[in-house]
Amino acid sequence: MKITCFTRRLALLLLAAGFVPAVSGGDRHYHPRYVMPPLGSISDEIWQRQEHNAEASDFVVYQHEFKLNGIRLNWAGEDHVKQIAMRLQSGQDFPVVIERSVTTAREDTTYKYPVHPNPELDLRRREVIVQALLAMGVTDA
Predict the structure, then answer these.
(1) What whole-number distance in Å separates Cα of residue 86 and Cα of residue 119?
(2) Cα 106 to chain center, whole Å?
(3) How many CA atoms does the CB half-sphere of 114 hold within 13 Å?
(4) Which of 79, 94, 102, 115 could lock onto 59 through a cystine, CB 3.0 to 4.6 A?
(5) Burial track 24-49 (b if 16+ CB lie within 10 A, e otherwise)
(6) Could you give the 3-state DSSP secondary structure of residue 61?
(7) What is the DSSP string of 63-127?
(8) What are 4-51's pLDDT values in tens digits?
(9) pLDDT tens sequence across 51-60
């Protein structure tokens, strides 16, 4: 019986393929099976972080909650500050932030558009919020 070169190579290849798992350790079949975590549990931490950040944004008093270029709160701003005071008293510990005003017109500009910041107005608005929170019983306003 004549064995061709191709048959010899094929036999050697199959023989070598049979020994490869034994030489490489052969433990690839003994790893524990991967258990898929419950649906959504991988992204739960991300959603909780976003929820926490959204809670912090509830403590921002925006410039549209004040009368235009004034320090007096409008009715929506008053309600919002009351909600902030209630939540601070209930133990939520987020900083209260007052948005910077950018509705002041300057006389030294060409078109005098009301798009400029006003740091003095911002400080007065901050004092109004601090006094309102103190009046509502927030001790460290």
Answers:
(1) 28
(2) 36
(3) 5
(4) 94
(5) eeeeeeeeeeeeeeeeeeeeeeeeee
(6) strand
(7) GGGB-TTSSSB-HHHHHHHHHHHHHHHTT-----EEPPP--EE-TTSSS--EEE--HHHHHHHHH
(8) 777 777 777 776 666 555 555 555 667 788 889 898 888 999 999 999
(9) 999 999 999 9
